[in-house]
Structure formats: C-alpha cells, structure tokens
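INFO worker-7 received task bundle
INFO bundle size: 2
INFO processing item 0
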Amino acid sequence: MSQLHFATATELASKIKRREISAAELLDHFLGRVEKYNPRLNAIIWMDVEGARARAKAADEALDRGEDWGPLHGLPMTIKESFNLAGSPTTWGRPELKDNIPDSNAVLVDRLLAAGANIFGKTNVPINLADWQSFNEIYGTTNNPWDLSLTPGGSSGGSAAALAAGLTGLDAGSDIGGSIRNPAHYCGVFGHKPTYGIVPGDGQALPGVFSRPDIAVVGPLARSAEDLALSLDIVAGPDHFAAAGWRLQLPPPRRKALKDFKVAVMLSDPAAEVEQSYQDCLQGVADALARAGATVSDTARPDIDTARAFELFILLLRAATSRRATEEQQDYFRQVAADTKIDGDSYLSRMARGVLLQHRDWLGLDNERAIMRHAWSEFFQDWDILLCPAAVSAAWPHDQAGERHDRTITVNGQQQYGVDQMFWAGYPNMVYLPSTVAPAGQSPEGLPLGLQAVAAEGEDKTAIEFCRLTASEIFGFQAPPGYE
C-alpha cells in the first residue's frame, strides 16, 4: 500500500533511519491526518503535540550524530488511555478520575520509549475498560472508520480505529476479555494477545493498584503482523521483581511456510453461534490453507467441554475484576445471586457469582482451569494453530442503552446477547494462551472480518508468523474507504 500513513511501523521506522523522511515530517503527516479525520472518529482523545515535536526533532538530531535509539527510532505512535504516561490523564473512562495525571510511565511505555518511539497521543476506551464499545462521559464515543454508526470494538477501540484510519504508526492495548482482539477484528487491523505474564502490565492499572490481575495482558495493535512481532520483542520480558532471576526467551515460530502448518478450524460453537457469512469467510481461509498444502481439520479440538469453559471464564473474569465493585454493587450482586428467578446460566448470574467468589471456591476453579491447560497442551502436541472467530459477527451498531448484559445484537437473523460472544475471547484467554487476530476478509456489507489464531502457551511467535503468512498469501490489511 503506497500511502505513507498506511505503511507499517517497520517500514516507517526504516524510512526515518534511511533519511527518506524525517521524524518531524512523519509526525506532522500524522498530526495533519488527526486534524482532518479524528473529529469524525474520536479515536485519539489526548495529544502532546509540543512534546512530540520536541522528541521528533531530537530523534532527527540523534541520527545526524550517528545515534540509533532503537528499532522504533522517531516513530510516531499512540497508546491506549489506560496506560500511565507521565503528564497525561489516565482515567479508564471514569469521571471521578478525570484529573488523574500520573508522574511515571507504565513499564510497556518505558520500553517503547527506550526503543525510540515518539508517543504523541492516547486513544479512547470504555469506562473501566469493560465494553466491546468505546465510550465514556469524559471523552465521548469512538466510531468505526468503516461505518461511523458502528462500534470500533472495545476496550482498545480507539487504538484500532486510529490504526485503521491511518492516524498513527503503532499502538498498544490491553486484553482480558477480547479488548485487543475484537477491535482488531471490527476495524480490520492486527492485534496480539500475548501469553499471560510475558509482558508486564505494571502501570496499566487504576490508581493504587500494583498487583497483577488474573487473565489480563497488555500487547500490541498494528497494521501488520511484522509490527506485532517487532513490538512484542520490545515490550516482552520480566518485570522488575523477576528481572534478577530469569530471562524470557520465546521460541521461534514452529513453521516457516503455510504448507507446513497443522491447523484446526473451529467456525462456531453452541455457546456463541457465529454469523454464517463470517463462518463462510473463515472457511474460505481454511480452504486457501489447504490449497497451499497445510494440514487442515474441522474436527480437531482440545478435550474440553466448551460450555463449561465459557462458564469458568466468566466466573474467573468477574472475580479478577471484582476489586472495582463498590459496596452498593456488591449488595446488588448478592441480591442477584439469591434470586432463584434469574437464570443461573445467564451472564448476570455468573457475573454476580464471580464478583462474590470466596477464595476457597476460586482455588477450585483455578484447579479446573489447570486441567484445561493440560488438555490444551496435549492438543498442541499435534496441532500448531487453532483457527477460530474473534467474535460472532462483524461490527454492530452503537448501543449505549441500559446495562451491557441486557443489550443484544443480531446474528443469523436472531437476537443474541452481546456478552455471549465473549466465549471467543475467553476460550483461549482463560487458559493463558497467546492469540493473534488478523484480517481474513470482508462481510457481504463490506465490513472487515478477522481470524483468530491461537497457539500453544509461550509460542506467541507461531501465532504471529501464521498471521504474517496468511496476510501475505491470502488476505491482508485493507484501508477503509474515504481515508486515502
């Protein structure tokens, strides 16, 4: 793709180092696009233009002296609003935190800066990072660049929208329930949810919270799989507690060509029925893989009850986020848990039980998860990738009415609770597996559709490389119309 703003971060950093464009010129190019297109998208909600221009100037002067800051030297990029960046607001979309200005950076931010990045802005999120939409009272609503009436996803929705529209060179998000993966899918970009624990989340937390939450990860979003690999190499590694005792060495990709991959394909599940046109798109990818010589199966699965896996995920997810529940909310959840008229298999019931979970009961669920981790490990002895959806459909209309768990979306002509599609986020994430989302095609309406490539624990580079190859040989990044 010839336009500068749709080039990959890898290409842009290389252009800066080869002096084909200065860091200052590239920054101004992106700032001009933010001025032109961001008002309709509301993807980037905070910028430090003066500081970014000073860093761009310093990056160019460093090259004049023969200094190389690293693989992202002078690259203009943005980050999700929830990361601490000294001097910028970090609110998580919560009105009471609108004046929260940290004086230090998240570990991920420090590592990106140390690699030479020029972070010029922050991207929008939903309140508490807890929606597959991105809106809040402080910053308003972020729109999908493919159709402004649709969600860009959440909670890293601003990140994916900014990348798709060519407003930034690279971005970083977080994911506990699909928050990197569903925005990448809805906006037609790439996102990687790392293996749990390999990228420190320090500084991507509410004020006063320092412990690592269960399931949650931080990771990159980009316009190419190459950028995901580059960014992951930069930000992965031990936190400061573990740094004295261990080093991270991720194994290389298992395969170098699509023909060598062994791919299990899962198109839908009773827990979260997938739109038929989306299934057809992923089947098209599977067929292309088979034509390329890959071993493809539509029946291979880990030996796991998917319905129970989904229930377990919601219970552990809501336990992991229960710290945010106020006393009033806990009282409400106690009423829900005691109400025999509420369906025990509903998201609301599971949410209530998760928030109220006793530690002894959590230990039992964690042990059940460990059994599932063993089942996944056995599965990946024979298979390299599980190819599956990232959600149940393409992006859907903004819906900010009522409670999230009551909202519905249309799937195959029927109404489905929007929260049910979290199955596709939790199936790999609850057991700590890495997964990469990459463009797979478009819906009949012309909206982007993404594939989710799940790999074995610690084999992040296999998932990313698989997506690099599919993008090269089957379907890659396509820019939304109107942002040329």
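INFO item 0 finished
INFO processing item 1
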Amino acid sequence: LYETDAAIVLVGSDLKLSKTVEPTLIRVADPYRALAKLLSLVEQTPDRTGREEPCFVSSDATLGENVYVGAFTYVSKNVKVGKNVMLFPNVYISENVTIGDDTIIYAGTRIHHNCEIGSNCIIHSGCVVGGDGFGFAPQTGSDYAKVPQIGNVVVEDRVEIGSNCTIDRATIGSTILRTGVKIDNLIQVGHNVEIGENTIIAAQTGISGSTKIGKNCMIGGQVGIIGHITIADGTRIAAQSGVGQSLKKPGAAWQGSPCFEVM
C-alpha cells in the first residue's frame, strides 16, 4: 500500500495507517465485495435478443420476452423459457425443461428432459445437466443390467455452474442444487445428490449418489465424497480430501484422506 503506483485503492473501513500514502483510499466494509460490485458495472455482457439462424425452436415451446436463441441451438417440445434468457449457440434443451427469468446458458451446454432451471442462473459452456445417473444392477456372471434413471435435476435460483460439469438426473425423484449454490469447473454431481443453499465447491470435486450436503459449506478442489452420507451445515473441507463417512458436526473443518477434523 505504501509503495503502490495505483491512484485509488479499496481498503477496509478499519484499516490503520502507520504513515501517509499517495493513493486515494476508499474505505468500505468489505473490499472484495466492493470490487465485485465495481467489476459488475464494467462487465460487457453481450446484449443479444432474437433468434440466429439456423436454429430449431419447437412450435409448442414457450419463450418469454427478450429471449436470445443462438445459432444451432435446439429447443424441444413443451419447453418453457422465461424472459431475458440467453441460450448461446449449440445449446440443447430437451423435452419438458423449464428455465426461469434472466438465466444465461452458454455455448455447448445440454439440458436433458424434465429438468428445471431457476431464475438468475449461469450455466457455463460444455455442461450436461440431467444425464443418466450411474446405476447398474449386477447379473449372473459378469453382466450388469442398466437401472433406468427416471428422475430429473432441479437447479434453484441464483446458481452458477462452471464449465464442463455433469449433474446427473435422479434414479427416482430429483438431484437438487439449492438457491445460491456455486460450483466450479469440472465437477461431477451424482444422482439424487442434494447441495444446500449457498454452498460453494471448487474444481474437480466428485460427489457420489444420494449424498446430502448442507447449506453454507465450502468444499475445496479435488475432494472425493462417497455416496449415501450427510454433510452438516457450514462444513469446510480442504482440497484433495477424501470423505468416506457422514460429517455431522456443523461448522467443522476437515482435511486429509480419509479426512479428519482440524481446528
């Protein structure tokens, strides 16, 4: 701070100076949040509406006002799209999908049948939402019978999904990402998983089927989580940890493989 050539610096409101500084200081309660707000003001989000040709929109699909449909995008029958939605090129929207207002779906994403996407969501390029869950029943010998995956995926409001993520549809019922969830790139979410409100998950994490993650959790990169367990609200899991049992203590921190509680 005392050596920077910057003209203006965002600093915490409680910062105490040991000497005078050259830049103008703008004191705010949370500099990081203030920076995010400033960047949102200068971000150049493409302002697009209408349809680019060629594309396909089923005659019985319902599109709200000011919707953008990019070239080579496919919108199937009985799809319902809210207002101000942006479907970038090469997006595939299958039958009976609903998409809420002001959601952005970037190029190359696939959303399979019966899935529900909320309002003010962002789904980045290359995601697959609603692909089959990984279910196979052992048969005699070395053969496996595929278990039909007849559920769906529900993505609630203000969820952001990074590039090349896969969110599997439920075997029965729904795989659910609750309001405010943020997940990074290259994340696998198995069938019937539920991720609680405002939980944030870093890249390359894998979550096995039927695991329930609480709200306000923070999960580092490359974490592996087995299926059919519960993780308490406010849990923090360090990068590259392996979670092989339920974590029932709210607000605790864990690391290692197998993970152990840390202070």
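INFO item 1 finished
INFO post-check item 1: The mean pLDDT is 96.
INFO post-check item 1: The first strand starts at residue 8 and ends at 12.
INFO worker-7 idle
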